[in-house]
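Per reviewer request, we include the raw input and output of the structure prediction for the construct analysed in the revised manuscript.
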Amino acid sequence: MNLHRVQVEHELRTLIQKLRQHYVHAPSDEDALRAVLAKSFSSTVTLLRHTLIATEHEAATDRRDLLRQVHKHLGVNVHALQAVLELRATAGTKGRVGSLFGHYLETLENICDQLDQWLPKKEWQRVGESQN
């Protein structure tokens, strides 16, 4: 488990990078951005669950409960995540997908920062390794 947090952080940073690349390719194509947000949410939920586990918290199976837990335990504003959850259920957010995309990225970056602060990289090591 001591490397779990590092792996989750790596996966979060990879997801953030992929989302940025999608935005750069089509910043004004709301339909494309909406599809990217909707498609990325399943991966995001999985990473949120593992973020909570890595920070020694229980992770809910219900997505809405999971978002509440992320807010409670990590202190991160999850409004953008909630909006993407709603976006998947409806065809809403016309005219504000670009803004939502930015807030979604910002939220993921904040979660990544919280995870990074949980146990800074300089303090982790493989089990059984001696400190030099």
